[in-house]
């Protein structure tokens, strides 16, 4: 069985590819620019061109593939329905799709429609409905933490059940190596503790040995500062949207699917920060 891993250049897809490689699974890593990927990774991975906005790349990317680890890319003009149709035409046997926690209550979010499209295709699937990524601290929150010693995001006092991308990857690979066991299942992946960003700042301060503050900006303050300093208003609006459920208190729920399936506890936020502390120093 050969797996097509999408999202390779992101925090989740790369972890899935890394873990699949450790288990000697046959795979192709989908990227838009093969030469650029080879410059960075050499011959460590086998790449294939896939651009979700260009249906002409779909058939080549799916050639010889049996399974897909599928992510929805945050770009314009994504032809997701066409891709699922191509997967059906290419007789794909199984899709593990990275979705969103509580998506069944969020019909305005693209994952809601995407899950329905996958179900409609009749391709066996597993939906990994993930909570808030710990890796966001290393992504769009990193610059403010590193340069200004602050967590700067409009999440209010809400708590969230942070999840490590490495745990998501573990469950993805577990599903891909035992597909029949996980056919047509929906798993909610969270950590086993719920924290607000004041608590996150306290943990980071202890581990990094410097004072990290959560400044709890309003949406207006956040947008004005970020647009002035970083531009890209569209992405900034996405960040606001990501943290809106947390601010309303909807992101704190804890689920134990990960522990039931892997027989181990999910990664604690403290462990994650210890593992990657050099990124904020």
Mean pLDDT: 95
Q: What is the overall shape? A: globular
The count of strands amounts to 9
Instruction: Quote the beta fraction.
Output: 5-15%
What is the helical fraction, as a range of percent? 40-55%
Largest sheet: 7 strands, parallel
Outline the low-pLDDT stretches.
none
Q: How far is the N terminus from the C terminus?
A: 42 Å
Summarize the structure.
By secondary structure, this protein is an alpha/beta fold. The protein has helices at residues 11-22, 34-41, 58-62, 80-89, 110-121, 142-148, 165-177, 179-182, 197-208, 219-230, 233-247, 257-262, 269-275; strands spanning 2-5, 26-31, 47-49, 67-70, 94-100, 125-130, 150-151, 185-189, 213-214. Helix content is 44%, strand content 14%.
Question: What's the structural blueprint in terms of helices and strands?
Answer:
Elements lengths: L1 E4 L5 H12 L3 E6 L2 H8 L5 E3 L8 H5 L4 E4 L9 H10 L4 E7 L9 H12 L3 E6 L11 H7 L1 E2 L13 H13 L1 H4 L2 E5 L7 H12 L4 E2 L4 H12 L2 H15 L9 H6 L6 H7 L6
Parallel strand pairs: 1-2, 1-4, 2-3, 4-5, 5-6, 6-8, 7-9
Fold and architecture overview:
The protein is α/β, with parallel strands linked by helices and 281 residues long. The protein is built from 13 helices and nine strands. Helix 4 links the parallel strand 4 and strand 5. The longest helix has 15 residues, at 233-247. It is globular and about 55 Å long.
Which features does this protein show?
281 residues; alpha/beta; seven-stranded parallel beta sheet; 13 helices
């Amino acid at each position: 069985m050969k797996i097509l891993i999408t999202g390779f250049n992101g925090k989740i897809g790369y972890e899935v590819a890394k873990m699949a490689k450790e288990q000697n699974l046959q795979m192709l890593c989908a990227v838009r620019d093969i030469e650029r990927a080879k410059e960075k990774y050499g011959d460590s991975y086998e790449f294939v061109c896939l651009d979700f906005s260009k249906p002409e790349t779909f058939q080549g990317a799916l050639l010889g593939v049996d399974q897909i680890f599928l992510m929805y890319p945050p770009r314009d003009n994504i032809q997701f329905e066409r891709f699922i149709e191509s997967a059906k035409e290419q007789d794909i046997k199984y899709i593990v799709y990275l979705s969103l926690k509580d998506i069944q209550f969020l019909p305005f979010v693209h994952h809601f429609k995407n899950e329905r499209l996958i179900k409609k295709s009749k391709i066996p699937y597993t939906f990994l409905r993930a909570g808030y990524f710990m890796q966001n601290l290393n992504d769009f929150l990193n610059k403010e933490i590193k340069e200004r010693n602050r967590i700067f995001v409009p999440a209010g006092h809400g708590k969230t059940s942070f999840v490590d991308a490495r745990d998501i990857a573990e469950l993805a690979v577990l599903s891909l190596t035992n597909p029949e066991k996980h056919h047509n299942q929906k798993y909610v992946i969270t950590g086993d503790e719920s924290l607000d960003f004041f608590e996150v700042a306290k943990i980071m301060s202890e581990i990094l040995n410097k004072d990290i503050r959560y400044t709890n900006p309003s949406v207006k303050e956040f947008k004005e500062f970020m647009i002035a300093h970083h531009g890209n208003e569209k992405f900034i609006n996405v960040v606001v949207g990501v943290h809106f459920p947390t601010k309303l208190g909807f992101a704190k729920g804890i689920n134990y699917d990960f522990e039931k399936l892997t027989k181990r506890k999910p990664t604690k936020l403290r462990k994650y920060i210890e593992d990657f502390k050099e990124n904020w120093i």
